[in-house]
Amino acid sequence: MSTVIKHKEFASRRLYETQVAGRPLKIEVGKVAELAAASAMVTYGETTVMVAVTCSARPRDGIDFFPLSVDFEEKLYAVGRIPGSFLRREGQPSLPAVLASRVIDRSIRPLFPSDFRNDVVVTATVMSLDPACSPEVTAMIGVSACLAYSNIPWAGPIGCLEVGYVDGQIVMNPTQAQKEQSQLDLTVAATAGKVIMIEAGAKELPDDVMYDAILKAHAEIQQQVEFIRTIVAEIGKEKMTYEHADFDQALFDKIVEQTMDQARAAMDTDDKNIREERWNALIDRWHELFLEEFPEMDKYLEEITYKFQKKIVKAWLLEGHRVDGRAKNEIRPLAAEVGVLPRVHGSGLFTRGQTQVLSICTLDMLGAAQKMDTIWPEETKRYMHHYNFPSYSVGEARAARSVNRREKGHGALAERALDPVIPSAEDFPYAIRVVSEVLSSNGSTSQGSICGSTLALMDAGVPISAPVAGISCGLIQDDDGSFTTFIDIQGVEDFHGEMDFKVAGTKKGITAIQMDIKNDGLSHAIIKEALDITKDARYAILDEIMLPCIAQPRSEVSRYAPKMISMKIDPEKIREVIGKGGSVIQKITAESGAQVDIEEDGTIHIASPDAAACEAAKKMIETIVFVPEVGSLYYGKVVRILQFGAFVELAPGKDGMVHISKLADHRVEKVEDVVNVGDMIWVKVTDIDEKGRVNLSYRDAIKEIKAKKAAGEFIQ
After folding, report:
1. Which end of the chain is more exposed for a tag (fewer CB within 10 A), N or C?
2. What is the pTM of this model?
3. Which of 637, 456, 470, 484 has the alpha carbon at shortest distance from 554?
4. Domains plus CATH for the chain?
């Protein structure tokens, strides 16, 4: 019996096409990953991202949050590379991939129902990469389309764009070449009416230019939203009915009615620990009053606490009253200190209220730069910023775990904020690592790390072009659409507020923005106000706190930091400096005590805690690569005499020969009549033959020296 073959028909296949920033965008559905709730193969230019979304059939038990998971997967085959790991397969996500996952998560999460408890998993796999077309933008549009046409409850669609600023012009979805010239790296996600996510790095861009870029991006995004709506209109599925999160409204209403005064009193303090003690005592009171009537009340306590505290905080903020008694434009008490740790290369302690961050700067050779194994063009990272958030910083008794996505994200934000002011490798040939240790957390630790790290860099003697300060802005909106913003949000305001708008920058302009929201988006008016009040706050922090602490970078690096010397040699001489099997460079390191890094272009970086060791290594390298120049004068030592001439050492291991005929103007019968071994004499290089042999003239050198002296020239 012969095998029966049938050809697969993709009856549900649909292809939707549009233009985004002048380049073709295609969304193909109904052909791949048909068992997912929704899927699409999204191609932008020649960047292709496979997007799939899935949703569990039932809610997860015992949780009070929406369990959303977003995975942005980079595959090195997308750029025609094999992974560099031992197993030759992709390992844990790279930092850029983690950041892309976070950007997508922050853009879509606010649009899910607040009482939805079903697991939702979003997977975006980069399968082909066109450097001119952003994989993050491609993934975001694909995720939006899949969620919109799926049966998963979601209030999208959204669109997404990257924005650059090149030669004074705002550019949508800049190419890789444009990104290299751009002063701005901005990502905006938005619905038709509101901006829902902002992520930006900038080279001290003026605030008004940033605002204009956001508005223009939003206008362009509206076209994407309409495009996705046409897809939904054709193939959109009816949204699933779901089991709403259980909540005892009757119990909540009774608690509010009978304990509002006690709750207000518990919240009215600037001390996080005192607030928690008071609230725990209030919960004990609830048990006394209501446990008999509501025996299952404990399972609702966390949500009751959240809703009750938010009700109080919102009412206060709308009235102009803050939990800690501050004005809306008032920053918590600040303190700054440098040189906190005696043996590190640089340290800065920044305190804002009960938030405290200690940043430490470490300098090393350029060879310590991080090697990147990603789909992105960046191969090495010279400046690295890491952020650690231990449990004791929030008073929790929890064992240390591996670095989570939040810590990676906050470190990347600080890195992005400070990178524009870091000096070039040519001006400051060091690899730089800053670690921000959160010692105490009551809101805005990421911005505290930016301020503390600026102090640490300056304390380490890193010649940054300008100090950077960071600050956050919060938001509360009323039911009628009115809103109030407030500067420097503490933990309870962040937890119960609707926005955490983080802005970092110098006096000249913005270097980084990150916006997190819990509502359905921001109006342009809110964004404008947030930019205005954070600008004023940045200036105040710099002028009144940071610059009085340390006005400028130290003139020299720490005595514990490696001293660095850079030099340039002919790339063809690199092999001589390294030697067979690295024998020569190992000898240089062993004898001088300095570390030596050699780049492909012939640039050599020499480092050691001892400056004399650097100079010794440099001299050894100069000797190895020394090549005499024809026509130049050299002062050398006679090291050997033969019947036909004298050999003169021009540099250690480098000599040339003065033929007997070139010792004097007259006939010389015997070399020893003119020079002897050990004599120091001037010689002139007359030529270098094809075998590299150097021919010298003592006679010509004496003539030239006499002429120079007669002309009044100094002979070195």
Report:
1. N
2. 0.84
3. 456
4. 14-159+207-235 (3.30.230.70), 254-296+305-315 (no CATH), 334-549 (3.30.230.70), 563-625 (3.30.1370.10), 633-710 (2.40.50.140)
